């Protein structure tokens, strides 16, 4: 898109329409992305809703310069997640509380899932910041490597390389803990 | 070059897995890379499986209503027109008339507002009790749980009521089995309710064996039970929320969780 040609710049109304189109496909992905960071299902659902509201309010400042709108949504999700994590008690930084604890869960299953989740999140903490972002956006946000590259300012080749290195590292850490 | 090829293949397989393909399907398409791909794709599968999470339909619907209400409020889309997006496109035009009426009805009847905080009353029609289903509570000399507030979700609507317990801290070791403790009593709007939330602000557990204070994790900022019950005006509904503590393996860690089996409402 030629950003210098005003005829080619989408109107706010067109951006609103595009955001509404993205809602159905991306609400779940954004919620999943947030959930992996904070480990709380209901808070993740709330934050995912906030992401779209914030995006709607900020459409005037949105300009599509290499980052598609879905990538922009994940930037907002990331910022809201960081805000949330700053607010909560630091004792909860290990999100063992990730499991969906609805009613009749078997306590043993619940505990095992909690341990698995803790194992994965602990392993993720050992990745570099960019590797972790690649994994979160690819595995849980469902973005393509090209879209992730747009968010991180990297080529898709660089993203693929980081992705492979991150998976190898995760596998090594998680395999060693078993 | 070989590494770049492998990175591309791995990337493509991950795209396919993200779209629902199985690890085996990807491996069978790249027999020359199977040995190298298998452990990495298995790791991808394990990580995704462990962190699987699908938002609830209720949460998604509520968030969507807020979003489209905000969209309408901005006044840039024709009022009400954006609400058509609340249903799949395939049925949108076939249900225009019904949808407009329903959407207007939803917005009028179910405004998204902060939940009201109820006032306690000894003569109230609703009592809230805490109990403990014995699992690993025997490990504790005391297990104090501090509850900052309780939420009740009305069935079939976005309406949620909240109250602050009169007794905020309970010792679960004293509430085992049939034992329970009332922490709030007051008037609650009669009707059907579907979920109960307890917001826990602090947990302090002291082990019998060592006398040490042990770390007890919480499932998020609140404990949540999906359990339908009814509150009426002509009887007192007592809802018992059963909490249990479970050891998470042999690592000395414990987690609190709601226990549906020991929870529920009864009317007196």
Task: Describe the secondary-structure layout.
The complex is a heterodimer of chains A (178) and B (268).
Chain A: H1 12-38, H2 41-57, H3 69-87, H4 107-125, H5 129-140, H6 145-152, H7 156-177
Helix pairs in contact in A: 1-2, 1-3, 2-3, 3-6, 4-7, 5-7, 6-7
Chain B: H1 2-18, H2 23-29, H3 34-50, H4 57-73, H5 89-92, H6 96-109, E1 117-118, E2 126-132, E3 140-154, E4 160-163, E5 169-171, E6 180-186, E7 191-207, E8 213-214, E9 216-217, E10 222-231, E11 237-247, E12 254-258, E13 264-267
Parallel strand pairs in B: 1-4, 2-11, 9-12
Antiparallel strand pairs in B: 2-6, 3-4, 3-5, 3-7, 7-8, 7-10, 11-12, 11-13
Describe the structure.
- The complex is a heterodimer of chains A (178) and B (268).
- Chain A is an all-alpha fold and 178 residues long.
- Chain A folds into two domains: 93 residues, RNA polymerase sigma factor, region 2, helix turn helix motif (Rna Polymerase Sigma Factor, Chain: A); 73 residues, Winged helix-like DNA-binding domain superfamily/Winged helix DNA-binding domain (Arc Repressor Mutant, subunit A, Orthogonal Bundle).
- In chain A, 70% of the residues lie in helices and 0% in strands.
- The longest helix of chain A has 27 residues.
- The N and C termini of chain A lie far apart (50 Å).
- The N terminus of chain A is likely disordered.
- Chain B is of the alpha+beta class and 268 residues long.
- Chain B folds into three domains: 49 residues; 53 residues, no CATH class; 151 residues.
- Chain B has six helices and 13 strands.
- In chain B, the strands form two sheets. In chain B, strands 1, 3, 4, 5, 7, 8 and 10 form a seven-stranded mixed sheet that branches.
- In chain B, strand 11 and strand 12 form a beta hairpin.
- In chain B, helix 1 packs parallel to helix 3 and helix 2 packs antiparallel against helix 3.
- The longest helix of chain B is centred in the first third of the chain and has 17 residues.
- Chain B is flat.
- Chain B starts with a helix and ends with a strand.
- The chains are: A mainly alpha (178), B alpha+beta (268).
- At the A-B interface, helix 1, helix 2, helix 4, helix 5 and helix 7 of A face helix 1, helix 3, helix 4, strand 10 and strand 11 of B.
